[in-house]
Structures are given as structure tokens and as C-alpha cells.
Amino acid sequence: MLSRLPRLGLALPRSVSVLSTRFVSQSKADSAISSTAVTDPYEPVNQSGHGEVSPFAKNPDFHGFSTDPAEDERNMKVGFFLGISVALVIGGTFIHYLPDHGMRKWARREAERLIRLREKDGLPLIQENYYDASKIILPSSNED
Amino acid sequence: MLKILLPSILLLPSMWLTPKKYLWTTALFYSLVIASTSLLWLALPAEIGWSFLNYFMASDPISTPLLVLTCWLLPLMILASQNHLMLEPINRQRTFISLLISLQIFLILAFSATELIMFYVMFEATLIPTLIIITRWGNQMERLNAGTYFLFYTLAGSLPLLIALLLLQNSAGTLSFFTLPYLPPTHLTLWAHKIWWVACLLAFLVKMPLYGAHLWLPKAHVEAPIAGSMVLAAVLLKLGGYGMMRILVILDPLTKELNYPFIILALWGVIMTGSICLRQTDLKALIAYSSVSHMGLVAAAILIQTPWALTGALILMIAHGLTSSALFCLANTNYERSHSRTMILARGLQTLLPLAAIWWFTATLANLALPPLPNLMGELMIITSLFNWSMWTLIMTGLGTLITAGYSLYMFLTTQRGPLPNHLISLDPSHSREHLLLTLHLLPLLLLVLKPELLWGWNA
């Protein structure tokens, strides 16, 4: 019945007139490996590494990056050099030698300096009130 | 700040202009350069204040570790995805990398945002690339369901947040992080204020996730391709934690009473999801539930708002990010060889892949919070601060720690120890790429043992 709707001609959107083709599944039927449930207009380029031919057969020095041996090696070198030598080693050294990260050593020194100063002058080490009590304006005790 | 953001933005056109042969090398090269430069953010001059300021972006001691983690993760995602994308047409590979890069851009903007609305927009914006990654490149049919759960759980939580933020903007005039702590105290006495409090936090609790609203996480983590799982586990969950830390500043004093149910839920979730892990057959689902378990501790800690709890939460967030991502990478190495996530189908792998077993061992030990790794330090600070808040929490957190050790060992022993199954006759040896990937996850974790003050947030 639905296929006769095109009789109504231009009144209906074009997609209705191609109804019969839209409901046919185009993805391949269940395959042994996990199937992508999306229509695949491109053929998979090369089935290597998926149970057929191991990439190690063609290239015993396969590093896992690319089937082209030269590019594979270049990619490996980039990854290891930048990842370990630059980021971890140089970056780690940079972080290690950061001067007083977060001013923690300064805070300690400053606290000790202030304690020495206050003990010398006989002042209390720390004031009891965090805020200056005379500056606080309290609301009146009437109900608000 | 811009010296990291602009190169990340410009990575997008460069992925489309690079010749096919050099695509992945170039992507890896530049993302590692950006990651190395991001370490400069750790040179924070002051403990509490904001650094590296411009009008819209700034970093402070709680956002800096998360920013560095975000930048570090992009090269790792590129390394992890390279193998399974090799068979796809070149434009799809470019699209995939572009999605990862755009995710990084949104995340950098989110963590460095100085204004709540900008943080909210970026928080939402990260959903889109993640959704596309999960639903397009996931491997099973369930990925559509997973994407739906992921999107709608997060959106349902964050729409109230938008309204709450707009209300706040209306009353306070500004939502800038610089001035939010200094707002005059608000009289939050009406029922509507309580609903406003929940609206502010719900989005982040769903994202963390809190145990009751966690259903999206196992689906999304399991169905996502490896890069999606990595970024979800390592960074996107922490967006929730970070958002909570930022917004709880303005939610006092309601927090003192209203946080009780959420703390209880979070702690109960630690035990429940840990127990679920003990019964899992699917390796990725086990790691996903373990993420919920760890994040439950983080959520409870952030909600009690004590200094040690916030520090512990921050340390655990970073450590868990690296550990969980490493575990997903290891699960992916299993998946790429056996095309199955079932644990018992690929067991006894220590005999076949002994070098990978080192990584399995280290990642498992990190997951079960072995000292002196930051995982333990964070968990310990959280447990002690929760104990200080109420001594009864010790029962739940102690049990949770025990169950965590249980399922981590279960995962390790099932995949690595014991006899090999009879059907495993040809597995590729571990690639150098996989070793590099796991080194770059676990070595920073070990290095953090030596300088944990990078992760302490606002505390001395």
C-alpha cells in the first residue's frame, strides 16, 4: 500500500517515493568478527592484523604503527623520543627543579620569621580573632 | 594559556592537510609537543591564586593537574587508536583524529574557564565529539543505546544546571570564578533554594557518576572505541568532579544538610559497584564499574568539603585517570587480538606476552591502591577525612577498599595467570606502540610518587 503513495505525485516529499529501497539492509550479514552495523561503501583496504596475515610476517620489525616499514620506524622514533626523552625526562627534570612550587618553602620561612619577631617583641604569636572585631557591624536584634 | 590552546586549535587543519603517509606520525609529534609544553603550567607561582591569566582562561592549583592530564592524554589516544583505524579510509581517520583534537580543545577551555557559563558551555560541548566517537566507531550494535544513555543522562542533569546558573547570574550579576567566593552571603532558606542547590550539582553528580545515576557509564565505556574509553575514564569523569569543586563554593550553607543523601549514595555505590566488578565477565565492563567505584569515593570527598578531602579527591582523580586509561589500553590489546571482551577467553597471557604482563601487574597494583602510588595517597586522605566527618563511613570505605583489592586481583589473575586456553594458537606479540602507550601512562604515575605536591590543590 505504501508503494502506491507516489500516485499523489509532488504533494509528497521525494523520500517517500523511494520507500522501497530505503528499507533494504545494505550492511553485510553477520560476520565472524564483530561487524560494523553501518553501511560500508568502501571496501576494507587490507585485512592484515585481523586473523589472516600477521603484519610480523611481512615486516619482522613491525612496531605497531604502520604497514610501511620506513614510516613505521619513523613513527616509533618520534613517539619514543618525544614521549619519553622530551616529555618525561626533560619535562620531569623541569618539574623537579621548579623553584619552590606553590610557595610552600617560602610560607615556612615566613612563618618562622614572624614567630621569631613576635617572640622577641613579646607579642602573641597569632591573634585570637581572624577579623578585626571593631569593624564588624551586627544587625540590630529586632526580627528581620 | 594561549600557547597551548592555539596550537591545539591549529592541529585541526593540519590533520586535514597532512599527506596520508605521515598522518599519524604528525599527529603524534605535535600532540606530544603540546603535551610537553603543557608541563609549563605546573610552574605555578602561587599556591592559592590564579596564574597564567587572560580574560577568559586561567589556571589554579586544582585545574592545573587536570589541564596537564588532558593535554597528556591526546598523544596517548592517538597511539591507542592507530591500529584499529589503519583499515579505514583516510578521510575517516582524519575525522577521528579531528574529533579527538576538538575534544581536547573543549576540555582545555572547560578546565581553564574563569566563568561558570563558559565552563558550562564547554562541559556540554565535550558531549558532542564523544557521542560521535562512541556511536560511529564503537564496535557493537549496542553502541547506539550507549550513546543515547550517555547523551541523555548528561543532558537531563545539565539542563537544571543551566537554569540554576542563569538564576545565579541574575542575582549575583557575575559568574566569574574570581569573584564568586566573595559574594555576599545569600539567605538560602526557601524550598526553592534547596531545589536550586540540587540543580547546581546534579549535572556533575551524573557525570562523576554518582551511584544512582551511573547507568550510562558502563554502556558508554564498553561500547566506545579505545580512544573514547580513555578520554571518558581519564578526563570526562573528572569534569564532573572539577565542576563540583568549583560550584560548591557558592552553595554554603545548604551543603551541610543537603549533602547527606549524596554522600551515602556515593559510599554505597563504592561497595555496590565493587561487588558488581567481582561478578563481571566482560573486561571493559569490569574496568568501567571500577571507575564508578573510585569516583564514588571522590564524590563523597568533594561533598564533605574539608581541605584534606578536597586534596584527596584531586589526587585520586589524577591517579585514577592515568590508571583507568592504562587498564582500558590493556583491555584493548586483548580485544585487538581476540576480538572479544570476555576475560576468560584470553587468560593466562603472562606465558604468551610476558612484557605486557609487567604492565598488567603495574596497572592492577595501581588500581588496588598500592603504596606509595598516588592512588593510595588520595584514597587514604579521603578515607581519613570521611572518618573525621563521621566514624561510620569507615565501615563502607574499608569494605570498599577490600572489594577493590579483590576485583583488581581477580582481573589480574584471570587475564594473566593460570594455564593458557586451548584455542589461543596465534597471538601477535606486543607491539612497541603498545609498550610505549603503557609506559606513557604508568611512568608519570610512578613519577608523581616523587613530587605529589603537584596534585595537592590548595593545601600545603
Automatic annotation (TrEMBL), chain B:
Membrane-spanning segments: 21-42, 62-81, 93-111, 117-137, 149-168, 188-206, 226-248, 260-278, 285-304, 310-331, 352-370, 390-413
Role description: Core subunit of the mitochondrial membrane respiratory chain NADH dehydrogenase (Complex I) which catalyzes electron transfer from NADH through the respiratory chain, using ubiquinone as an electron acceptor. Essential for the catalytic activity and assembly of complex I.
Gene Ontology CC terms, in alphabetical order: mitochondrial membrane
Domain NADH:quinone oxidoreductase/Mrp antiporter transmembrane: 113-404
Lineage, broadest ranks: Eukaryota, Metazoa, Chordata, Craniata, Vertebrata
First-level EC class: translocase
Family, per entry: Belongs to the complex I subunit 4 family.
EC number(s) stated in the UniProt entry for this protein: 7.1.1.2
Reaction(s) catalysed (UniProt annotation): a ubiquinone + NADH + 5 H(+)(in) = a ubiquinol + NAD(+) + 4 H(+)(out)
InterPro entries: NADH4_N (IPR000260), NADH_Q_OxRdtase_chainM/4 (IPR010227), NADH_UbQ_OxRdtase (IPR003918), ND/Mrp_TM (IPR001750)
Compartments, as annotated in UniProt: Mitochondrion membrane
GO biological process, one term: ATP synthesis coupled electron transport
A GO MF term: NADH dehydrogenase (ubiquinone) activity
Protein name from the UniProt record: NADH-ubiquinone oxidoreductase chain 4
